[in-house]
């Protein structure tokens, strides 16, 4: 390696390994030779074996729509597997593919593609029984073997359709629906076992009641794409909401006479907040404010990556023809590296991509 791996530096300091003569210059590479490099700088940005073999830290992205030319607007499980493969190359252990708001039948087709991809991963896991970081996944439909350090797909995040059209962001407001149990049943019936998160705007009529229904089913409710006031967001929290989707983005902003849902997310110390930590969604000082005010155990860094999010390249904003942001430009591991490079505490940032999402999801094990 031409430079020291970011996480090796962190764990060497954290565990005082230099005291026993270990070289902090990416010493895990001497054991497993599994490192992924930034192709521009030729320096390693993460060594996946740090997670897989030493501390078993799982890096989790709970909000990704796609990456590298693939997204969840598909009925092909192979596309979902490619998303998992690309995230895995960046050292992400687990992902929750996020479904765009769309007509219900279209969303169900997209969810089914994720379910099939999860089943393919389970079948291969049963066959291989291997703990090596470099796995080999056979795709029967394509008829070939693809070696890859793939992320595990652990469920589905539905970003809609019960959202506020006035805060649609990059989503299509024409597909948004008013909250109703009938529509919810049509959407999730048969998929209850894999749906992990649903994003809802709490200020919509009937939303709080529906949020309680969803929460009682064991599905996490996150509030987002919302014009909620502070009081309306608080009502959503008491109705069962556990998180806020991409804080500050596609929502009512903070105002001194009405803090809004953004203010509620900052000040409430129990609700989780997603943070897109690429260079384009939040000003550096806004990120600093979040970390100064918010309970650090409730901050979750997400990618919100999309089909056009670049891979192995300098970060570019992902926009439409009018310059409107369409999604995140960095994986969660790249975002973590960026924040640590900006001076944020390493241990705190690593919690935001590992133990914090794990606790929100109530994931067991390492």
Structural write-up:
With 366 residues, the protein is an alpha/beta fold. 36% of the residues lie in helices and 18% in strands. The chain contains 13 helices and 17 strands. It has helices at residues 6-15, 29-32, 48-55, 77-89, 104-128, 181-188, 207-216, 230-238, 260-267, 284-293, 332-341, 346-353, 355-361; strands at 36-38, 43-46, 60-64, 66-67, 70-71, 94-100, 135-139, 144-148, 152-153, 156-159, 195-200, 220-223, 241-244, 272-276, 299-302, 318-319, 325-327. Strands 3, 6, 9, 10, 11, 12, 13, 14 and 15 form a 9-stranded parallel β-sheet that branches. It has a two-stranded antiparallel ribbon with strand order 1-2. The chain is globular and about 55 Å long. The two termini are 28 Å apart.
Features:
single chain, 366 residues, alpha/beta, 9-stranded parallel β-sheet, two-stranded antiparallel ribbon, 13 helices, 36% helix, 18% strand, globular
- Percent in strands: 15-25%
Structural class: alpha/beta
- N to C succession of SSEs: HHEEHEEEHEHEEEEHEHEHEHEHEEEHHH
Helix content: 25-40%
Q: Count up the helices.
A: 13
Oligomer: single chain
Poorly predicted ranges: 17-45, 48-55, 133-148
- The value of Rg in angstroms is 20 Å
Q: How does the major sheet shape up?
A: 9 strands, parallel
What does the average pLDDT come to?
84
- Based on Cα principal axes, name the global outline: globular
- The total beta strand count reads 17
Give the N-to-C terminal Cα separation. 28 Å
Summarize the structure.
With 366 residues, the chain is of the alpha/beta class.
């Amino acid at each position: 390696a031409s430079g020291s791996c970011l996480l090796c530096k962190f764990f060497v300091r954290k565990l005082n390994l230099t005291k026993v003569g270990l070289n902090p210059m990416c010493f895990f590479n001497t054991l497993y030779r599994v490192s992924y490099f930034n192709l521009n700088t030729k320096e390693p940005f993460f060594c996946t074996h740090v997670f897989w073999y030493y501390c078993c830290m799982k890096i989790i992205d709970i909000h990704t729509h796609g990456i590298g030319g693939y997204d969840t607007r598909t009925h092909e499980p192979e596309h979902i597997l490619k998303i998992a493969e690309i995230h895995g190359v960046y050292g992400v252990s687990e992902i929750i593919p996020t479904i765009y708001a769309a007509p219900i039948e279209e969303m169900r087709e997209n969810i089914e593609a994720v379910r099939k991809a999860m089943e393919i991963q389970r079948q291969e896991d049963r066959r291989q029984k291997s703990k090596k970081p470099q796995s080999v996944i056979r795709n029967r439909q394509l008829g070939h073997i693809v070696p890859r350090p793939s992320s595990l797909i652990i469920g589905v995040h539905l970003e809609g359709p019960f959202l506020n059209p006035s805060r649609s962001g990059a989503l299509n407001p024409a597909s948004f629906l008013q909250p109703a149990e009938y529509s919810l049943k049509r959407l999730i019936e048969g998929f209850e076992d894999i749906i992990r998160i649903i994003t809802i705007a709490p200020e919509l009529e009937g939303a709080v009641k529906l949020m309680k229904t969803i929460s009682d089913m064991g599905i996490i409710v996150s509030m987002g794409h919302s014009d909620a006031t502070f009081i309306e967001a608080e009502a959503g929290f008491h109705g069962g909401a556990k998180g806020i989707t991409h804080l500050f983005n596609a929502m009512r902003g903070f105002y001194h006479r009405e803090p809004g849902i953004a203010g509620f997310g900052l000040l409430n110390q129990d609700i989780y907040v997603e943070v897109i930590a690429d260079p384009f969604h939040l000003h550096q000082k806004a990120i600093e404010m979040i970390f100064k005010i918010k309970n650090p155990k409730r901050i979750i860094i997400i990618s919100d990556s999309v089909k056009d999010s670049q891979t192995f390249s300098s970060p570019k904003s992902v926009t439409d023809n009018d310059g409107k942001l369409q999604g995140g430009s960095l994986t969660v591991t790249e975002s973590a590296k960026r924040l640590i490079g900006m001076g944020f505490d390493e241990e705190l940032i690593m919690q935001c991509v590992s133990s914090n999402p794990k606790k929100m999801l109530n994931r067991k094990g390492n």
